[in-house]
Amino acid sequence: MDNQLLAFLNRKPAPRIVVIGDALLDRYAWGRVKEVSEEAPVPVVGVEREELQPAGAGLVAAMLAALGARVSLIACKGRDDDGDRLEECLSKAGVEFLPLKASPSATARRMRVFGYVHYAGRGVQQVVSLIHLPKPAELAEARKELIERIDELLAGCDLLVMQDSGHGLLSGDAPREIISAATKRNVGVVCDPEATGNPDRFRGAGAWVVNRFEAEKFTGMAMADPAHYSAAAKWLRETYGLNAVYVKLDREGMYLDSSREGSELVPTVQREVADVTGAGDEALAATAFVTAAGGSDNLAAHVANFAASLEVTRLGGVPLTREEIVREVLSRQAQHSAKVVTREEAVAIRERVRREGKTVAFTNGCFDLLHIGHISLIRFARRQGDVLMVGINSDASTRRLKGEGRPVNDQATRAGVLAALEDLDYVFVFDETSVLDSLKLIKPDVLVKGGDYDKEGVVGWREIEACGGRVVLAPLVQDKSTTATVRKILNSGTAESK
After folding, report:
1. What is the DSSP secondary-structure string of 336-377?
2. Residue 74: strand pairing partners
3. Please, which residues have CB within 8 angstroms of residue 43's CB and are 6 or more apart in sequence?
4. pTM above the 0.85 mark?
5. pLDDT tens readout for residues 429-467
6. Which helix (H) or strand (E) holds 111?
7. Active-site annotation holds for 281
8. 72 by DSSP, 3-state: which?
9. What domains can be seen in the chain, in order of their start residue?
10. Which of 22, 275, 281, 445 is catalytic?
């Protein structure tokens, strides 16, 4: 997937995108926490510098511009100094700002205070966030103007993004009328509905990008594990007539349910988190950018997940450039290549790990088209030992097992995809049809297989137990297999050709 991501970004697409939503002016105050107030148990921050940035829909627009899109923002701008400052910030970010003429008298604004916990300047954290919003009555005229002008505002755009912060511009029936206008113009729509609003307002949009809390709120389902992610995303897509649903799962990554490409859990890239501000906006922007430029839903999920993981390493909402993402992907590729080893190297690593007093967990398979069942198996296997090794069948042995036409992806691609998973430490390819020879060489402490086996049906269970190891069966994710996915794709192609 990294290679697909790089190929897409290096094309330097520049789609025309219109963003509609609540725009704010964010004022960041940075300073040192020198004491705790005598009046209350709160930190006293000595402000040293301030910065101004667009927020809400304004930040999403700035993030799209940084990725290379040609962006127009439709939002309210108050008749005050903060409105002028917001417009200046957007201009610097490369965003065309088309403020509604019936804007409220005061610009929506927010103050975020960040304090240095230590005198050395480390341990920065957000202390407080203060927000000022226009009065609901003031926004009614702006909504009216928006609906009257929506057709002309969408002229010539490739995609419409609606970022709902719940502050008023996209309340009532406005989203329905906007989606209707976009549909008539054959303009795709990506929405980020706000959790406390009525999601039915965004029915019929092309795609939704929601977070875990919003998915729970809209569906009434607990987002506890991959099976719940799958059920909730599918329900949202089918209930609201969508093409795709992207569910942001924080440290677990992103779940995609697409009517065109099926479902997938995209694992997160583990990073040290500095501040989660802007991560959701970056995911929305990246999803919209890839979609507008003609990328697949699957590619959009991977780019969005990767971009959001980078965003949390920054303090505050910081738009990421396309070049920054490309550099980070290249860096990750270099790291992942070290995880793909030969079987002989895997044996040497096993001996080193044993000398260190650590345990090795092991699982194996073809891992042709990675799906949620594979991810669940690998995450389960990760918890069974200190180091996780995975053995995959070579192209030749996969063909012997699965028949002609398989594997879909060659062994180098399959090994590279697995190496990109944070839960996995090492992966190697073996050419035998059976994994038994590899098990005799590696002698793992724990052999993990899927729950569709019983212990006696697991190849090598006697040999593993004879060496003092054990066999563990992972919970099975129902109705997920590469063979079924390939069959579905082939059947879909046959149906379209008729």
Report:
1. HHTTB--HHHHHHHHHHHHHTT--EEEEEE---S--HHHHHH
2. 20
3. 33, 35, 36, 37, 115, 127
4. no
5. 999 999 999 999 999 999 999 877 788 889 999 999 998
6. strand 109-116
7. yes
8. strand
9. 2-24+59-99+140-333 (3.40.1190.20), 338-486 (3.40.50.620)
10. 281
